[in-house]
Amino acid sequence: MADITGKQVAFVLTNGYEDSELTSPWEAVQAAGGVPTLIAPKGGEVEGKKGHTQSVDALVADVDASAYDALVLPGGVVNADHLRMDEDAVKLVKGFVDAGKPIGVICHGAWILIEAGGVQGRTITSYPSLRTDLVNAGAEWVDQEVVTDDGLVSSRTPDDLPAFNAKVVEEIAEGVHV
């Protein structure tokens, strides 16, 4: 696995996330030396679909993409749907998109990338039900375990996490993609 020692990695999510899509990439980032930060619209704790809870480190309204080296967007229908309606969350994600920083997105997490203008002209995968949304937003959707397009890493479901985690860490190690 690549070495990302000291790299600051933002995890943006809210309640209703897919538990393993937070915990597995979080552990992979830590194992590679990265420093994950949980960023959410509200403080306190966030709770996943299956009951995992984790403390919020920062609020989306209070941080800027410039403070981080990369972004991870876990899925979960409720999580993704609520984030894409949160103006501060969309603004934060757009900052990562505009800066060309590595972004890992899995399952339904791609919804917020659509809102942030981050999929047009990109090749991406997701949970199959997002295919039409992504195509309508200008992406080329493919059904693959993991897809990388200039620093944008995407996967479909928790089954893809081993490949997703490895590719996310690799892209973080590579850095900004212009």
UniProtKB/TrEMBL annotation:
Pfam families: DJ-1_PfpI. Keywords: Hydrolase, Protease. It comes from Agrococcus carbonis. PANTHER family: DJ-1 PROTEIN, PROTEINASE. This is Protease I. Belongs to the peptidase C56 family. The keyword Cell membrane does not apply. One of its GO terms (molecular function) is peptidase activity. Signal peptide: none annotated. The keyword Hydrolase applies. One of its GO terms (biological process) is proteolysis. Residues 7-171 form the DJ-1/PfpI domain. InterPro entries: C56_PfpI-like, Class_I_gatase-like, DJ-1/PfpI.
